[in-house]
Design goal:
Layout lengths: L1 H6 L3 H62 L14 E7 L2 E5 L22 H9 L3 H11 L5 H18 L2 H11 L6 E2 L2 E2 H16 L2 H16 L7 H14 L7 H24 L6 E6 L2 E9 L4 E6 L1 H9 L3 H7 L2 E5 L17 E4 L1 H4 L4 E5 L8 H68 L6 H33 L7 E3 L1 H18 L3 E6 L6 E3 L1 H17 L6 E9 L2 E7 L7 H4 L10 H4 L9 H11 L3 E6 L5 E8 L4
Parallel strand pairs: 12-14
Antiparallel strand pairs: 1-2, 1-7, 3-4, 5-6, 6-7, 8-10, 9-10, 11-13, 14-15, 15-17, 16-17
Helix pairs in contact: 2-14, 3-4, 4-5, 5-6, 6-7, 7-8, 8-9, 14-15, 16-17, 17-20
Length: 649
């Protein structure tokens, strides 16, 4: 029913109203979205400006930190903090290299000459060993040299003595001789420390003997000292011994990869410095070098008598140079990425991709690398922008809701006005039809009487009675319309009096039986005993009951019986009117008591009426602080119940 009222003609007006609402709403949404886009672009620009400013400050801080590091390089022992382990300070001299800390490199570019034993004292013993194969006499000759006051001769004697013990098959004495050899820490044999040679040889013999427990203990100790920088070794010596020791020890050194890369970088730097010395071309004051997967930053400080070089790995860069700018980075929610001239990352394992980045080139800053500052978060989605966006979207949503609500209310009012206008038109048509029938009857009767066509007293009496009925019908119709108008305007005056309900209903039924008989209907009345009086306006209540009875016979053609029951329901008096008509659908029940509303049968033109009967009855009952109930099932009839409060006795 509601859908029919909303979409009833003229539909083109509703369509026009819909588009009139839609176009401004779409325009408002587009403007709001465009404003959001502009605000986001402005926020991005603000973020980029702040990022550029932060990049300048970060670059200045990095320059200050590197300058401070250069100042401490004059004293290599204080050049760095001890927390980082991927750095080394190299002091270059003519033909020599100093390493600080001394045990940081696994191997060094060059090593001091050391104390090499002379070869002449061993000639006699070596003739017995190599020419005559007389290992016993060779052992005696070398044993005599172990008492020498020269540590280098003594160490060389133990080396040869152990070798001959092995050849003579006396392995235990060979182990003891190598143990003695390992006690000479300052002696070298062709660049190999005597201690390393003795301990390495002992492990080799333990492998041959199958002494796994002793081998495990001594090889692990040798492995740790070898990778802990205990000895100054060349690259080839370190790699040779390291490879063999790894065959005995299934272990790894924490941070070995970075130390290998650091040692290789120092070796590369030494060669670069030698070439520079030979060509006379000076080295730059800063550079980077990539080794394996690491990029090292190199700072050089040259003087006439002191050339100091700092080789710094990623951990050093983070702890010494980037850490001081972390507060600024966290405050601005930025990240920093240092890139060398080859495009390799200095402080990150993998390159960082930024949507918007700020570059500070190496050539412009004087730093060893290009500084890249950026953020991986959405640049235009800051807290300030998110707050403004929520506020704007909330405002836009409220405006749209208000706009749609107003449009809905206007459309509803417009539709209601159209509906009321249509109902009034239907009402005027129905009233005109109601007036036409008695007027036509009066016109015909009056014309016959005026022209003398009616003769006989009996026939004249019938004409007069017919005129009286038509006149009464017109009077009732006019009175009903006038009363309803006064009720709607609130000007109708009810005259309440105490009334016996059974007597009132019986009088209405008796009077209505004449109307019912004309349509072939029959009324059956039942009244419960012991009914208390009610205080009502007699004429108004009679009108309400009459209207309901009138509806009952109108909407139940072919079903002659209409039941009227008067009884009690709790503390109320109940007047029920039941018919066997077609019933009323659930959709129509919601609007049945509205003025000018008529059911489907009435709108189809088969039932006459004005559409104010039930509205008038409902108005009267509500004025008596009562109510009308409706029970109806399509195809099974309807029951209207008037409930009125009874007087207390």
């Amino acid at each position: 029913m509601l859908k029919d009222r909303w979409l009833s003609p003229p539909r083109h007006l509703l369509v026009f109203l819909f588009f009139l609402t839609l176009v401004p709403a779409v325009g408002l949404i587009w403007l709001g979205w465009h404003l959001l886009q502009q605000d986001q672009a402005l926020e991005v620009q603000r973020m980029l400006d702040r990022q550029e400013l932060a990049a300048d400050r970060i670059t200045n801080l990095l320059q200050q930190e590197i300058t401070a590091t250069r100042q401490t390089m004059a004293d290599p022992a204080r050049a760095t903090e001890p927390s980082a382990n991927d750095y080394v300070v190299v002091v270059l001299h003519s033909g020599e290299v100093e390493i600080h800390p001394s045990n940081r490199l696994l191997y060094q570019p060059t090593i001091p000459a050391g104390q090499e034993p002379p070869s002449q004292p061993y000639l006699a013993g070596e003739r017995y060993e190599f020419q005559q194969k007389d290992y016993v006499r060779a052992i005696d000759a070398f044993r005599m040299l172990t008492d020498s006051s020269d540590p280098s001769i003594c160490a060389g004697a133990y080396l040869r003595l152990a070798r001959n013990y092995r050849k003579a098959g006396n392995v235990q004495l060979a182990l003891e001789a190598y143990e003695k050899l390992a006690q000479f820490s300052d002696v070298r044999f062709e660049g190999v420390p005597a201690e390393l040679a003795g301990r390495h040889s002992r492990c080799a013999i333990l492998v041959e003997l199958g002494h796994s427990e002793d081998l495990d203990s001594e090889s692990r100790s040798l492995f740790n000292d070898l990778n802990g920088g205990r000895w100054q070794l060349t690259r080839s010596v370190f790699q040779l011994h390291s490879k063999q020791v790894r065959e005995w020890v299934d272990s790894a050194v924490p941070g070995e990869e970075i130390l290998m890369a650091l040692s290789a970088t120092a070796d590369w730097l030494w060669e670069l410095w030698l070439n520079s010395q030979a060509s006379g071309a000076p080295l730059p004051k800063s550079m980077t070098h990539s080794e394996s997967s690491y990029t090292f930053t190199i700072l050089l400080e040259f003087a006439e008598d002191l050339n100091v070089v700092l080789i710094a790995g990623p951990q050093f860069v983070l702890s010494q140079w980037i850490f001081p700018v972390n507060t600024l980075l966290e405050t601005q929610e930025l990240e920093i990425y240092l890139q060398d001239s080859s495009g390799y990352s200095v402080n990150s394992a993998t390159p960082v991709e930024f949507e918007h980045k700020s570059l500070r080139l190496q050539a412009d800053t004087g730093l060893p690398w290009t500084v890249i500052v950026g953020s991986q978060r959405d640049t235009g989605n800051t807290a300030q922008f998110a707050s403004r966006r929520r506020l704007l979207l909330t405002g836009l949503a409220l405006v749209i809701i208000l706009f749609v609500a107003c449009s809905y209310l206007i459309g509803r009012a417009f539709s209601k006005e159209l509906s009321v206008a249509r109902l009034k038109s239907d009402f005027i048509s129905a009233v005109s039809h109601e007036f036409r029938t008695p007027l036509a009857t009066l016109h015909q009767l009056t014309e016959n009487l005026a022209e003398g066509r009616v003769s006989g007293k009996k026939r004249l009496q019938e004409y007069y009675k017919t005129q009286a009925r038509a006149t009464g019908r017109l009077t009732r119709l006019v009175d009903r319309l006038l009363d309803f108008g006064r009720m709607e305007a609130g000007a109708f005056r009810y005259r309440h009096e105490q009334v016996e309900l059974d007597e009132l209903v019986r009088s209405v039924v008796d009077e209505f039986e004449h109307v019912a008989s004309t349509t072939g209907h029959r009324l059956e009345l039942s009244i419960a005993p012991d009914l208390k009086p009610v205080r009502v306006d007699r004429e108004a209540l009679v009108q309400a009951i009459w209207n309901i009875l009138d509806n009952a016979i109108k909407y139940s053609p072919g079903r002659p019986l209409v039941w009227i029951e008067v009884g009690r329901e709790d503390s109320n008096a109940a007047i029920r009117v039941r018919d066997e008509g077609p019933g009323i659908s659930k959709k129509e029940r919601k609007f049945l008591f509205e003025k000018f509303m008529r059911g489907a049968a009435a709108r189809s033109g088969t039932v006459k009426g004005t559409g104010i009967g039930l509205a008038m009855a409902d108005n009267i009952v509500r004025a008596h602080k009562g109510r009308i109930l409706l029970e109806s099932t399509p195809g099974q009839g309807s029951t209207f119940t008037i409930l009125l409060r009874m007087e207390e006795t």
